[in-house]
Specification:
The chain is of the alpha+beta class and about 475 residues long. It has 13 helices and nine strands. Strands 1, 2, 3 and 9 form a four-stranded antiparallel β-sheet that branches. The chain is extended, with a radius of gyration of 36 Å. The C terminus is likely disordered.
Length: about 475
């Protein structure tokens, strides 16, 4: 290893070390946060109503899955109704996580601060509302406008535990908010029948007064699978960019992975979007509906689809040592059919449309909404039509080689060359701009989603490390 390679390796090593330190200190970077929730559904039998008079049809019921908290579930679900549930995951911006973290810290600090409000002879509902408003004011002061903490009283859980809003109590508040909350519920237990324990849980920027039996789990947090995927995408992007220096093993590995993953992805897409529903679903609809695609409608088998199945099997003969010639039948059919379909599409979409546009009148009238002629728009529409006609005729003249390009014909052909060069240049520029847009999107991914050096959509402005420079 020469001195130049050693220097480059040292620079790359220092960069990697700084990158790792930056990733795992403070707010870090390259992290994806999600909000976890629960989705619950129940299968109900909903009566089908006649639209005119609202009467229930004879034997008119429809089975359907509905949200467990919907009106249909409340009205028609029974204890034995089939139910299904799972955890849902929704990506959220880092700002949401940072605001929740700041709110949590502010609420924890506020709970440990002195409780200065006075609560005398009152009821439990008023006492808790006084406590809630005082804690919210203290937490907002601690958050310093960087987040919006919230304080909730979970009356559903408290009622289930035996507490009543109207219970008359006399309270002597304690030194801080936590002690004061305990004093309030001690007074409520002494005046009522409940002996359940209560607590205050801080999670996701909320302080929830509830019972110990009500488990409150933070819903917003880091998603390791998505974060690992983000880092892999960034690493492979840099590996592809490394080809700008020279061909290297990192580029070859990334290239092979891209090709292999792309082939596997399109194979899976072709299987589940084409072969399963359009081939197997037509030949064996009952089996596919019962085992592979429950949403596929059942019908009688369509045996005409055996023809494409046979052609598909013949195409696989390309893999056979002595049967490769059989695949030529399928290839010939694919090439011939594709050529015919594309030819018809080009004739209708390009050739006939070009002829139609060329034989339009040179003077084009553009009407206003009130039916009058818009002179300005009509003038430029006419100029466009005249330019189109001149371009078509001059380009056709340039490709008309039966007449020597001299005199008037040569001049018209030269105008056609100008039209052709402008068209080719515009097409090339459009292609280049498309590639530049892809490059800009990759740079935005690296500097925004991964490194957090920029924040164009204001997703991380709450974080102290948004500058991202290490």
């Amino acid at each position: 290893m020469n001195r130049q390679q050693l220097t480059l390796l040292s620079i790359a090593g220092v960069f990697v070390i700084l990158l790792v330190v930056r990733a795992f200190t403070g707010n870090g970077f390259g992290r994806i946060y999600v909000e976890r929730g629960e989705a619950a559904f129940v299968k109900v039998e909903v009566p089908v109503l006649d639209a005119p008079d609202g009467n229930v049809e004879s034997e008119g019921v429809r089975s359907m899955w509905v949200d467990a908290s919907s009106d249909e579930a409340v009205d028609f679900a029974a204890a034995e109704s089939p139910r299904a549930g799972w955890y849902s995951v929704k990506p959220v911006s880092p700002r949401v996580y940072f605001e929740a973290t700041i709110s949590d810290d502010a609420l924890q600090a506020a709970l440990s601060s002195p409780f200065e409000s006075t609560i005398g002879s009152t009821d439990l509902g008023t006492a808790l509302e006084t406590w809630r408003l005082a804690l919210l004011e203290k937490a907002n002061a601690e958050a310093a406008v960087q987040a919006e903490p919230s304080v909730e009283i979970n009356w559903k859980a408290l009622h289930a535990a035996g507490f009543d809003r109207k219970t008359a109590i006399t309270v002597t508040p304690g030194s801080d908010f936590k002690t004061s909350l305990g004093a309030i519920f001690d007074a409520a237990q002494a005046a009522g029948d409940s002996d359940a324990d209560t607590t205050v849980v801080v999670a996701d920027g909320r302080a929830i007064v509830t019972t110990t039996a009500d488990d409150v789990v933070p819903a917003i947090g880091l998603s390791w699978p998505r974060t690992i995927g983000l880092w892999l995408a960034a690493i492979f992007t840099l590996a592809i960019f490394s080809f700008l220096y020279k061909d290297n093993p990192f580029y070859k590995i990334a290239e092979s992975v891209v090709v292999g993953v792309s082939a596997a992805y399109w194979m899976v897409i072709g299987l589940w979007d084409m072969i399963v529903p359009n081939l197997l679903g037509q030949l064996f609809p009952g089996f596919v509906q019962g085992n592979l695609l429950p949403g596929l409608g059942t019908a009688d088998p369509n045996w005409a689809y055996l023809v494409p199945a046979i052609f598909g099997a013949l195409l696989l003969m390309r893999l056979a040592p002595k049967g490769q010639y059989l695949s030529l039948w399928t290839l010939a059919f694919i090439v011939g059919t594709t050529a015919a379909l594309r030819m018809v599409a080009y004739i209708e979409g390009d050739f006939l449309s070009q002829i139609k546009a060329t034989i339009e009148p040179l003077y084009q009238e553009v009407m206003n909404a009130d039916g009058t002629v818009n002179g300005y728009s009509s003038f430029w529409a006419s100029v466009r039509q005249i330019t189109l006609l001149i371009g078509v005729l001059s380009c056709l003249t340039y490709f008309f080689f039966s007449v020597e390009h001299k005199g008037v014909v040569g001049k018209v052909a030269r105008v056609g060359i100008w039209f052709l060069m402008i068209t080719f240049g515009a097409a090339f520029g459009f292609t280049v701009m498309g590639r530049i847009a892809l490059l800009a999107a990759r740079f935005e991914f690296l500097f925004d989603d991964w490194l957090w050096l920029i924040d164009p959509t204001n997703q991380r402005s709450v974080a102290a490390a948004v500058g991202g420079l290490f």
